[in-house]
TrEMBL record:
Compositional bias per record (Basic and acidic residues), positions renumbered to this chain: 652-666
SUPFAM superfamilies, per database record: Chaperone J-domain, Thioredoxin-like
Keywords: Membrane, Transmembrane, Transmembrane helix
Spans annotated as Disordered: 647-704
Protein's name in the database: DnaJ homolog subfamily C member 16
PROSITE patterns noted in UniProt: DNAJ_2
Domain J: 51-113
Residue spans crossing the bilayer: 25-43
InterPro entries: DnaJ_C16_autophagy_reg, DnaJ_domain, J_dom_sf, Thioredoxin-like_sf
Naturally occurring in which organism (per UniProt): Olea europaea subsp. europaea
Upper classification of the organism: Eukaryota, Viridiplantae, Streptophyta, Embryophyta, Tracheophyta
Amino acid sequence: MATPTRQNFPNNQISISSVKSTLKVYSVPLLLFALSIFFQLIVVPRNFPTSHYDVLGIRKYSSIEEVNQAYEKITSKWDSNVEILPSVDLIEVRYAFELLTNKLLKRDYDIFNIDEHFHMIEKVKAQHTGARIYDIDLPLIKAAASDLEDVFSVINSQNFSSMFEDDKALLVQIISYGSNRCAQFSAYWKRIVNLLDGVTNTGVVELGDVQLAVYLAEKKSSAQPFFRNGLPALVSFPPGCKSSSCLQRYNGELSVDAITDWLATSILNLPRILYYSKESMVHNFLAKSKPHKVRVIFFSTTGERATPFIRQAAKDYWAYATFAFALWKEEDSSFWWNIFGVESAPAVVFLRDPGVKPVVYQGPINSSMFIDLMENNKLHVLPQLRNVTSVELGCSSRGYSRAGSDTKIWYCAIVAGRQSQELNKMRETMRSIQEKLSNDGELDAVDLEPISAPAVSALKQKRLTLAWLDGEAQKSYCFFHIHSETSYETCGPRRGMTDAAQLFIVRYERNATEEPKKDMKPMKTPFQAWHNVDADPASTLVAKYNGSSEISEIIRWMSKTIEDGDSRELPPFKTKVPELSPEEADYFWSQPSEKFLSSGKSIRHWTSGLYLQISDWLSDPRIGPSLLLAAMISFSFIWLKLNRSQSTQPSNRDESSQSRVKDENRPKRRNRRKNDSNKLIPPSITDEEPKDAQQMRFSDSDSE
């Protein structure tokens, strides 16, 4: 009879569950242990490959003489007729020899771990595997094609601080005289320097100045300096930054366009200038531009983005002009010629007053030339009186005159009105008057017409300024000077179908006894501020013109007004002229906008910096041992905790059993005590019946 087989399924299930529970308890130390092994066997070897000194079998930072001796010792065992097998490290030995015997390359490798020719090893191996030793083209490392010492103007530790004397940003290129990449980039660097002229300071640092190069380099966790993307490396100090704590590093493509755009956008917060086609130029740029701004249009044949000095000018002159780019095409040349008079590109066009011929500049342009053009064309031909131009034009009651601070009396002829055909016609008339008075100013006093002599003389002496005023945008200023029944046709928002342009002259007279006011303490309440308003340093009188639009009649009236104002002693009229309102819609590149852009830029910079810090931290060789130590500590802590809990469980069982025994014995002891106590008490006579006792019964009759 066969014996039945034994089944151990419950025991197997118990063992599997115990293993699972053990693994679950020790999951954290096991994970840390696995991570430490991963870092030590995979991550660390990738970040710390075998050095070229190890290939030659010598200690790190050995001298060139020791490198030569090690190379001769290795190569003396080789035969030039032996074929090169894939396992032979001949090419690596030769490369290490050439690198470590070059003073510049050895210096860069020892201090900054720079090895830009490392890719040549695999390339040469792939080309010469199976060939003979003498078939290899030597040397493996090609020398720099040009002498960089004659190309770059290098700054050093002594004159580096002089680069921060002004508030401009600083762009620094870090190079090595032995680098081929730096030699190839030298032509691009010259182009970048030309484009940044007048916008940013530039300089070059060579690795030979170890102190300055280490100061500008990044630092690993081991404090070793390095350049993340090799050489050339670009770092920038933003405006106002004078230490390495706030410098920014460029990690993008080494091209002129990419570098200049990064500097202009990320470092300087300069606005971008858009390109327009011939259709969008009319509808989206010319039609939507503000009427008080000059329109500046650039024509380009390449379609490249605006240079930094143009973008800097767009930021500096945002209150005066608006900018646009157009791509020049031969099929569109007739269109541009008919509208702006542009013959070819590159060209710059300035559109000033409506109906005035554009100012066209043909040919390439640099920073200084463009700034001169902007200064000459930033205002309309007939300037507009605005809050940013009042002092420059001398039409300010604060005491500013174009003729100088010694001038006592000066005038401003202003034509005011809403944007309309009537205002445009009057502006055209005033431009003609300005041109005629300017041309007459070139004549001698004898040849001047008597009717225009006072006006011509005042214009020549800069005591007369002609301007126009937007009556709708500057309604307070307009109503203050034109206070009449018809002022609503000129000032304020349009209320009807009638628009009228009004010409008036403001006479400014400086009060000689008025001393400049010192800085006053700010008022606490609006009432105090209104009550303590001081009169303007110059008194004003207004004369309005009510005649025809004939040029000669207007000139006669202006001359008569100026002559009377200069000759007659008029009583001073002190008052507070309303301030000219700023154009809020154009307040885009103001300080709040810059703060918003800088905050967004700082967030992007912070996130990119955090990513680089994490990647650098992961390559730290101390992570593997740290994880192993953490795994051992965690394992020990869990083991001690489990042993402590197991040792306390038997004692708890003993205590519980003893308590149960005590509980069971308590009733018995009580019964025993009770029985013993009962034995000591004597029996009562009613407790037991006598043996001869009889029971007696009584009937009911007996009871009666």
